[in-house]
Amino acid sequence: MLFNPKLFKEKLSNQLANSTYSNVEVLQLLARLIKELYVHANLSDQCSQEKQVYYFSMEFLPGRFIETNLLNLDLLDICKDILLEYHYAPRDVFQSELDAALGNGGLGRLASCFLDSLAALNYAGHGMGLRYQYGLFEQKMKDNHQIELPDRWLGQNGYEWEELQSNESVIVQFGGRVHSFMKNNRLTFELIGTEQVKASPYHIPIFGFQNQRINSLTVWKAEAIPYPPPIEFEAFSKSKRHAEQLTEFLYPDDTSYEGKVLRLRQQYFLVSAGIQQILSQYINAGHSLSQLPEKRAMQINDTHPALIIPELMRLLIDHHLLDWEEAWKLTTQVMSYTNHTLMNEALETWPVFLLKEQLPRIYQIIEEINRRLCEDVLERGLSEGESIDDIAIIIEEDIHMARLATIGSHKINGVAKLHSSILKNQLMKAFSTRFPERFTNKTNGISHRQWLMNANPLLSDFISSLIGESWKTAPHKLESLLSYQDDLDVLTTLADIKTANKNSLITKLRTELEIDILPTSLFDVQIKRLHGYKRQLLNLLHILYLWDLCHEKPDALRVPRTFIFAAKAAPGYHYAKRIISLIAAVAKQINQDKKTKGKLGVVFLPNYSVSQAEWIIPAADLSEQISTASKEASGTGNMKMMMNGALTIGTRDGANIEMAELVSNENIFEFGMAADEVIAYEQNRHYSPRDIFNQDIRLQKALSKLVDGTIHGDEVAFQDIYYSLLYRGDEFFLLKDFGSYVHTQSQAENQYLDSQAWQKKCLINIAHSGYFSSDRTIAEYASEIWGLT
Ligand code: CJB
């Protein structure tokens, strides 16, 4: 059926004419109408002949859906007009939607951009995730410390976009033991005495951009199985509690790994529920299992859902009676795996005893995969210097999930060129030499619909006025903007748009948070999870240096600057929380300093989220992407700010390198060590942060502030941070890169003084940012990994 905007218009107007509503009620009304008129009338056809892709991810971070959905259904302008007609402010209505924060950071946000692009490109591609009752924690600041509160994203009346499909519930089993016996001349395996949990799917519609496509994000909720009465109330409520715990919380940790039983159970719950549903729909549609790889593809988003490999093997062998070889062939052809980090602590391993206890049949299958792999490798021979431990999945008492994901997939990719190359040539070398054709790169991308069209309508409209609308469906066409790079009127308008976006942010911060920032200052922005390797602390050392400079030579700072930070730290990551406290303490002190007022400002915005990012990014002048080279797999905030006309100051890390290749070196501010230098230091070169400290008076002055009482607000005066840099090895090479960072910052400042030259660089960045649309990334996954047409 065709989408019918006329009906939507009529129904919305009628409803609004008949009663007065609060903003939340209008939002709920809009969601209800969209579901009624578009989803119910056009239920996605899971059984169609098209090949279906499933993106399995423990995290999705969509933020708000309302504007995205209206835009994609081509209802945004109609809806705004009607709301205004009935005296509702569209922005207020839209902002009453709570963010769905079912993810921590980049990984989950990428998954959401991918769903948006899958639908926009008219592919049948769906998300499979968990319906955590509490999403990523709400961050409050109290006396400069991060406080974590539960995130009640479901609201009081439930979540407006979801729809429970109770007829599609499945049972997921934990524990028990494996009973093996002969049946019809075949060794058969059966799980007995298991704990059973009901998995109920909630579908959230994902609309394609003005193309009639509706896909879905399915999020699974864990529930106890209601036993027939009579039941013992106490026993039932205990098992209910135990079952529901499974999808209660999102693990608030992105790049480090928590070896918790609950986390393992969550991972299995997702993959078992998802794959059971996919297989049963597939079989009900009358397809044959031998054709599974032609009709279905499954992407494993980092190792968290890697148990899908043994789970599919279990279903094919134990339930559908395929033999091992057949099942393995189908499984590896269907699966593909994306690695998102090389950080050691994030490379998941699970203790053997835990799998044996929680998932005994899955353990047997992993053991068999490992046995066959090792046997095959030994038969073909190890290379010089290699050991079987470089390739085995089970080493001593640990199961290495990245290796399991790799051996069970036909394609393995990293998320930017540098990252994919380190993945292939270092971390997974033993695999890539044996299966070179499996390794590939897919540089990340972002949805230009959400991050440019929706987040920055002023810029988006201006672009269309210059080059037409075609960039909206073909973002590489943003390159046509290059012909305006010397057009003074265009550059002036670009500057005006930035000023308008900065003013909107200023107003919002003033009214909502009582934070005042200098409207005329350069907005220097670092917004992302707080992690040692992302080096928010390096940014702060530069701020402390500038603070000194301002005192010593009042005219030295030629451009007033506001440093904007927003970041959540994992609750168990003590060092990251200390850095948040330090930023907040420094901000307080600098903002009170009369001598530097009007020149230097620092703000830490609490509770960073997708919708907060949508305000900050269009207002950013300088984008801080300053990770230790080799550590940031790709980054995606770098792409968002580039697309919104901010210039990047960054290391040669992740996707920064590809940004520099596109815009050329003079349009990006690069500094610091390259990845191979960092790796050389890590492997064998001697690094002495104290030698650097002893030779650099700027560093001495900046760092001494952490311990000499200048920065108030902490009983131990931030000695721990001081010591981590000077006496505990400075793991992320802040001191090493400090000199080059300060120098490059001052180049950026010089450049900003020449507004026209600055705007020209911004325009060149915007023009090349189309490459970083997730439409390009998804088109590559589709043709090179998923085999979609
Ligand atoms: N990433 O956000 C996470 N969480 C993880 O557990 C592992 C990686 C990030 O994924 C993004 C999407 O690929 C990358 O851009 C980013 O560099 C990486 O840290």
Automatic annotation (TrEMBL):
Catalytic activity: [(1->4)-alpha-D-glucosyl](n) + phosphate = [(1->4)-alpha-D-glucosyl](n-1) + alpha-D-glucose 1-phosphate
Family named by the database record: Belongs to the glycogen phosphorylase family.
Keywords: Allosteric enzyme, Carbohydrate metabolism, Glycosyltransferase, Pyridoxal phosphate, Transferase
GO biological process: glycogen catabolic process
Biological role stated in the UniProt entry: Phosphorylase is an important allosteric enzyme in carbohydrate metabolism. Enzymes from different sources differ in their regulatory mechanisms and in their natural substrates. However, all known phosphorylases share catalytic and structural properties. Allosteric enzyme that catalyzes the rate-limiting step in glycogen catabolism, the phosphorolytic cleavage of glycogen to produce glucose-1-phosphate, and plays a central role in maintaining cellular and organismal glucose homeostasis.
Protein name: Alpha-1,4 glucan phosphorylase
GO cellular component labels: cytoplasm
Organism in which the protein naturally occurs: Alkalicoccobacillus porphyridii
Catalytic activity, EC: 2.4.1.1
GO molecular function: glycogen phosphorylase activity; pyridoxal phosphate binding
Positions bearing N6-(pyridoxal phosphate)lysine: 640
Entry keyword annotation includes Cell cycle: no
Matches recorded under PROSITE patterns: PHOSPHORYLASE
Gene3D superfamilies in the record: Glycogen Phosphorylase B (3.40.50.2000)
